[in-house]
């Protein structure tokens, strides 16, 4: 359980740092909650994971909030701000197929 607690703490810290480095306008453009909202929620999740055991109720709520950020908000922010790698192709448009642009013909 010790390693699971550390894993949850690192996961919530990762989400907190990731939300801190994103621009405020990206949150509005992605139609998500504000940057301050996510910083507070993820900061509380990290603090709860640090001070409480994994078997308590609050760390589970913090884990759910962290998962929501990583699975829903983070990809939307990356898409809006143009971040993220498109490995191995490099940068392409959203209409590019594996052999070049898709023109609908």
The largest sheet has its strands arranged as 1-2
Average predicted local confidence, pLDDT: 83
Q: Assess the beta-strand content as a share of residues.
A: under 5%
The sequence of SSEs as H and E is HHHHEE
Extended strand count: 2
Span of the ends, CA to CA: 56 Å
Q: By helix and strand content, what is the structural category?
A: mainly alpha
Relevant terms:
two-stranded antiparallel sheet; mainly alpha; elongated; single chain; 105 residues; 4 helices
Topology at a glance:
Blueprint: H1 2-21, H2 24-29, H3 35-51, H4 57-81, E1 96-97, E2 100-101
Antiparallel strand pairs: 1-2
Helix pairs in contact: 1-3, 1-4, 3-4
Could you explain the architecture of this structure?
The chain is mainly α and 105 residues long. The protein contains four helices and two strands; from the N terminus they run H-H-H-H-E-E. Strands 1-2 form a two-stranded antiparallel sheet. A hairpin with a 2-residue loop joins strand 1 and strand 2. The longest helix is centred in the middle third of the chain and has 25 residues, at 57-81. The termini are far apart. The model has no long low-confidence stretch (mean pLDDT 83). Residues 90-105 have a biased composition (Low complexity). Keywords: Membrane, Transmembrane, Transmembrane helix. Pfam families: DUF2516.
């Amino acid at each position: 359980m010790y390693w699971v607690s550390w894993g949850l703490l690192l996961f919530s810290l990762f989400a907190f740092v990731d939300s801190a480095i994103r621009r405020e306008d990206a949150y509005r453009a992605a139609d998500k909650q504000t940057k301050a909202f996510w910083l507070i929620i993820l900061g509380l999740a990290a603090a709860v994971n640090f001070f409480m055991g994994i078997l308590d109720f609050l760390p589970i709520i913090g884990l759910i909030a962290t998962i929501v950020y990583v699975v829903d908000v983070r990809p939307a922010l990356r898409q809006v701000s143009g971040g993220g790698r498109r490995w191995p192709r490099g940068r392409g448009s959203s209409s590019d197929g594996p052999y070049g642009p898709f023109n609908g013909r």
